[in-house]
Specification:
single chain; 126 residues; mainly alpha; 3 helices; 67% helix
């Protein structure tokens, strides 16, 4: 039986993966760079973060679209205040988040390109 993951579970998995990366790359007494030892690892990591950032605007747009459709259908309620105000604030913030994600993706693309020619000249640990 094939089960489909809920979208919010996929978003949570992405957030958890970033947390695990941060934990794995914390400097330790044995290694100043944590789990990252070679520029190729940085190159691959930045490439993955770049792909994630490139996909975020679509995620935010689709979430914004859902909120807008549900609001226009009259399907939303609010615990306080006006639904329209909350939806407007959320959709405006998601539009801003998409612009920020585009900027993040551009910066990560530049970092990825800058890392491309860098090699490692020290001893390799197995």
């Amino acid at each position: 039986m094939t089960t489909t993951r809920k979208p919010e579970n996929n978003a949570d998995t992405a957030a958890e993966a970033v947390r695990k990366f941060n934990h794995a790359t914390l400097p330790t007494a044995r290694s100043r760079s944590g789990g990252l030892k070679y520029p190729g690892q940085a190159y691959a990591s930045v490439a993955a973060f770049k792909r994630m950032a490139q996909n975020l605007p679509q995620s935010f747009e689709q979430t914004r679209g859902l909120l807008t459709r549900l609001h226009l259908d009259g399907s939303l309620t609010a615990d306080y205040g006006l639904v329209a105000d909350h939806v407007g604030e959320a959709t405006q913030a998601l539009t801003e988040a998409a612009r920020c994600a585009d900027k993040l993706a551009d910066a990560l693309n530049r970092a990825h390109s800058a890392l491309a020619p860098i090699g490692y000249g020290g001893e390799i640990d197995d």
